[in-house]
């Protein structure tokens, strides 16, 4: 695992390759080490990689030493996951663009134990109405065992985090800066409290300062780790709408707080409602709707009694939601060929079905 970890770090340094391309490379070669040692011609077989990226791979691999690079990362003293780590958030591994390096501070068990996270996002310029309902819904969800995820921005995000913490709950802040950079500055005490009682995440290197272009991509992480997304208040161009788009892409449910037609802060929410988002009509109603969401984990599923221990090992890593082939391989820690053969057997036994795009799902 440590060796594969080094190769994930090295691949993250290749310019022109984003998380989507890296996931495709991993799926194609079976491991990042195998990809690192593959001839450049082999990358031509990967869809949408492009000639420019392929040339960049050939040029930049020669200047990097994966194990030396990993030692440098570890020497900086910051904790991080790669997709090779067993504690890498399982839901995040399934999205099309999982971060190759994900930094963290705080209580990692929030994501590894079975406590579902609900994202609450919205405008920085929140109204008293939006803040009040954010506090109310965050407190209610916390009392019913949900973790609250948001972006630690001013306005709705801050209210969601603070209300969760006030109830003694667990909250997750996904930053658009380095893990060690507090933004906005006035949230310094909130940052420290989340480190103690919750979890801080970022896929940007430590020291990365606030930059407008960094915040939209981090929203995919907020959506990726959450079972559902609540947009509490959003203008037409709010970043919260970007989070909702990621949520739709990842198969997460979107809920929105209805507001006044006269309120600019509600225009984005009304747009979401018009596009089919669920309306938040009260605490009881929201809890009832959340109860109908299919579980994204596999904690309550029992394996069929007649499958072998070897097949059971594969079956346990397939979710009730569509699970990409490479995510199953990553979780099992087995060669892709062995996993592929086991999946075919499970299909023939009628306990797993294959979906388009090399995805598998329990029956």
What report would you give on this structure?
- By secondary structure, the chain is α/β, with parallel strands linked by helices.
- The chain folds into 3 domains: 74 residues, Orthogonal Bundle (DNA polymerase, domain 1), CATH 1.10.150; 185 residues, Rossmann fold (3-Layer(aba) Sandwich), CATH 3.40.50; 54 residues, Orthogonal Bundle (Arc Repressor Mutant, subunit A).
- Helices cover 44% and strands 13% of the residues.
- The strands form 2 sheets. The chain has a 9-stranded mixed sheet with strand order 1-2-6-5-4-3-7-8-9, sandwiched between helices.
- Helix 8 packs parallel to helix 9 and helix 11 crosses helix 12.
- The longest helix has 16 residues.
- The protein starts with a helix and ends with a strand.
- About 1% of the residues have low confidence.
The helix/strand series, from N terminus to C terminus, equals HHHHHEHEHEHEHEHEHEHEHEHHEHHEE
Largest sheet: 9 strands, mixed
Number of strands: 12
- What CATH architecture label of the largest domain applies? 3-Layer(aba) Sandwich
Radius of gyration: 21 Å
Helix content: 40-55%
Structural domains: how many: 3
Q: What's the quaternary structure here?
A: single chain
- Estimate the strand proportion: 5-15%
Structural class assignment: alpha/beta
In CATH, the topology of the largest domain is named Rossmann fold
Cα shape: globular
Kindly, what is the distance between the CA atoms of the first and last residues, rounded to a whole number of angstroms? 31 Å
Number of helices: 17
Strand order of the largest sheet: 1-2-6-5-4-3-7-8-9
Broad CATH class of the largest domain? Alpha Beta
């Amino acid at each position: 695992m440590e060796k594969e970890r080094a190769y994930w770090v090295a691949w993250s340094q290749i310019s022109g390759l984003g998380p989507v391309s890296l996931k495709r490379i991993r799926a194609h070669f079976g491991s990042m080490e195998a990809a690192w040692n593959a001839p450049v011609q082999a990358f031509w077989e990967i869809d949408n990689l492009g000639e420019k990226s392929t040339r960049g791979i050939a040029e930049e691999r020669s200047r990097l030493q994966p194990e030396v690079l990993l030692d440098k990362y570890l020497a900086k003293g910051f904790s991080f996951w790669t997709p090779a780590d067993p504690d890498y958030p399982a839901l995040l591994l399934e999205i099309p663009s999982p971060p190759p390096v994900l930094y963290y501070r705080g209580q990692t068990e929030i994501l590894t134990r079975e406590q579902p996270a609900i994202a609450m996002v919205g405008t920085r310029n929140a109204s008293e109405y939006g803040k009040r309902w954010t506090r109310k819904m965050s407190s209610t969800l916390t009392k019913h065992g949900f973790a609250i995820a948001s972006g630690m921005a001013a306005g709705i995000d801050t209210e969601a985090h603070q209300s969760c913490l006030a109830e003694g709950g667990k909250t997750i802040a996904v930053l658009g800066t380095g893990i060690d950079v507090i933004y906005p500055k006035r949230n310094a005490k909130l940052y420290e409290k989340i480190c103690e009682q919750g979890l801080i995440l970022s896929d940007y290197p430590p020291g990365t300062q606030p930059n407008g272009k960094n915040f939209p991509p981090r929203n995919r992480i907020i959506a990726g780790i959450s079972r559902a997304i609540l947009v509490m208040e959003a203008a037409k161009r709010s970043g919260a709408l970007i989070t909702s788009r990621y949520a739709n892409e990842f198969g997460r449910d979107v809920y929105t707080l209805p507001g006044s037609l006269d309120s600019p802060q509600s225009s984005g929410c009304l747009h979401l409602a018009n596009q089919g988002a669920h309306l938040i009509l009260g605490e009881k109603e929201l809890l009832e709707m959340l109860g109908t969401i299919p579980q994204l984990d596999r904690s309550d599923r029992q394996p069929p009694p007649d499958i072998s221990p070897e097949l059971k090992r594969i079956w346990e890593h397939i979710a009730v939601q569509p699970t990409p082939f490479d995510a199953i391989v990553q979780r099992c820690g087995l060669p892709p060929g062995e996993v592929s053969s086991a999946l075919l057997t499970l299909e023939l036994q009628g306990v797993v079905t294959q979906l388009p795009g090399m995805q598998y799902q329990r029956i």
